[in-house]
Amino acid sequence: MFEIKVDRIHSIVDFVLEGRVRLEEMENFVSELRKACEGLQGREIKIKADVRGFRPMSPEVAERIRAVQEFGLELGVMRVAEIIESDIVALQLNRVARESGTDKVLRRFWDEDAAHEWLLHGDPE
Question: How confident is the model at residue 57, as a pLDDT?
Fold first, then answer.
């Protein structure tokens, strides 16, 4: 299951991924996420990814995530905040982020408010 929202004022694409996502559902998610990011093209795009309920993924699903992360970086994604609970999912997403280059703009959070603050303001000077 997934849900995507766009905050046009702050250029934030906010999504939730839950459960064990099948390849077909991941392809739908990737398509919707691409559209959301394209709608903010030319701005400093920020992503809030709530993957607390996401379950370990197949290699095919991981490949789709890697590809959409690369696409996001090409469009101008400046920050990615992941809200995560599972160590196994974190390890899988670490590998995918390294492969896509997203690890350079990624920060992990346990708290949704802290993630949102970082997306808006970045690191303190």
Answer: 85
Q: What are phi and psi of 57, to 5 degrees?
A: -115, 160
The DSSP annotation for the chain comes to -EEEEEETTTTEEEEEEEE---HHHHHHHHHHHHHHHHTTTTS-EEEEEEEEEEPP--HHHHHHHHHHHHHHHHHTEEEEEEE---HHHHHHHHHHHHHHTGGGTEEEES-HHHHHHHHHH-S--
The whole-number pLDDT of residue 2 equals: 94
**Residues composing the chain:** 125
112 vs 6: CA distance, rounded Å: 16
**Among the listed residues 46, 60, 37, 51, the one whose alpha carbon sits nearest the alpha carbon of residue 3:** 51
Would you say the C-alpha torsion 83, 73, 88, 56 has a positive or negative sign? Answer: positive
d(C-alpha 99, C-alpha 110), whole Å: 23
For the chain (125 residues), the mean pLDDT of every run of 10, in chain order, is 96 95 92 94 95 90 93 94 92 94 95 95 84
